[in-house]
Amino acid sequence: MELEDTNPWPRRIILVGAGFFIIASIAWLSNADNINQVFDPRESATQQTNGDGIHNIVLGEGCWTITSIGQIENLNVSVFEIEGSSLGDEITESCRTDFEPQSIDDTEFVIIKKVKIAQLANVSIDVSCDAPCDGLVLYFNSDTQFYEDLIQPSFIFMISFCCLGIIMMPLGGVLMLMNRAKQQPVNLIQPQDDMIHDPSTMNTTDELYKLIRQTVEEAESKEKQNIPPPFAGQGQTDVINTMVEPITSEQESFNQEKTSENSLKPPDDAWKKWDGG
To answer: Does the predicted TM-score (pTM) go above 0.70?
Structure first.
């Protein structure tokens, strides 16, 4: 027998979570252009360089992601601080950011490196590659600008609904499994054809009593027939012992003498008759 869920809330949580996820997906597709402006480096980069050589740009504080279109072999990109009119030390400190370049036209972007800028500074970008790279374009995206773009109301709505859907659907599934585990399976035994009785053919009380009485008597007779050997002749012995014993000749003569003595005795009121006579 299939178990039925007595608690409807797990199913409701799953349905609500699925609704949130569908709404977020529809909103994400309808705002594809706004999303592309945030994640596509060609639209969102605050700085960019063309070709190889040395390029001087200004980078603000934060974690910067340097990307290019497509994979380029033996590409070397170095970032140096500019101190006055001369180059300073190379900036090698790496960092982590949530920015991942992507676009709606499936353009392949490659992250060259991520560097951390401690404060607003002029930097020199040294770009070199073995093959000619005149058409090379490097895009510089800041995590600060990326987070500012994400706090737009439309993005907050989409991200919130998507997260709620992703959390609620597995949660509802787990609650449903726990609810089913608490239930005990109930197996219904189908009655056999010979056990099904028609109400019109049901026995009366007297018939049932006779049937039960007959069953008891048959059981008792079987028990008597199955008496073990030590007690096999017990019933016959009792019958023999209850039979009347024959009267012997001595007992008969004694009885006759007793009768004659009783006949010779006068009645109790004989003296009254003699005295009054």
So the answer is: no
